[in-house]
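To fix ideas, we reproduce below one chain and its tokenised fold.
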Amino acid sequence: MKNRITELFGVEYPVIQGGMVWCSGWRLASAVSNAGGLGLLGAGSMHPDTLCEHIRKCKAATDKPFGVNIPLMYPQIEEIMQLVADEGVKIVFTSAGSPKKWTGWLHERGIKVAHVISSSAFARKVEEAGADAVVAEGFEAGGHNGREETTTLCLIPSVRQATRLPLIAAGGIATGEAMLAVRALGAEGVQIGTRFALTSESSASDAFKQFCLNLQEGDTRLLLKKLSPTRLVRGKFSDAVAEAEARGADVEELRALLGRGRAKLGIFEGNLDEGELEIGQIASLLRGKGIQTVEQVMEELVSEYREALKKLM
């Protein structure tokens, strides 16, 4: 499984854990790194002091490479970037914005940069910005999503044609077979969110994890398109959002409905009625698996990948 992604990040397997809000703390990131992948801290739900604490705890928990995922819409972006540099983080994944402003700045400080996109047009801009790798995330993914609504199997070959950068596939990937499928389409690595969000090391609440491990096909939908397209689990809150959108609610009404701390309420605190529940479509494939450890997940992914590859040879 050695390739440009494993060489770029210094990992055993080309498996990157998504830097998910309210899930991706130091326990999850260090566990993924210790298991041979690349763990990411999710800065999107952390104040600077909290992120600093998680970086230091992650360093203490693993001697393997790990990184930080930073949404470029972060309100204290300058402070968070300086903090990451000062703490000696060597890998940053950026998203939700243009990579041009920060890629050069991060490179000057010896930090490798990957940027998350949802279209081949944005992939070309990532290469122009000088990033080290590109993450192409399809419509199936949980949380914030691309407006293009392009599925992973359509997006990966399109991005592969558009850029020569090392390519990481994301969205709807939770098995070794899926890893092999996107490899066949030109991806050199995978970024996995949902599968790791539901592990024992994830900082999400057990109520959220158990709920998502019992979802069926069609139990998620893409909403909040006037704000920032977000894949949500069907439920009381998402029903309210869908109703508001159906009657033509404007951006301000949707923003008021979303409020502050809605994702924390649902994912971290486990309020399944009033909280914002973000998870990928692939959760239905995990139905009945139960909460696994990161080590168990990584072992399954690698074993499934190798078995699937044997069948094709």
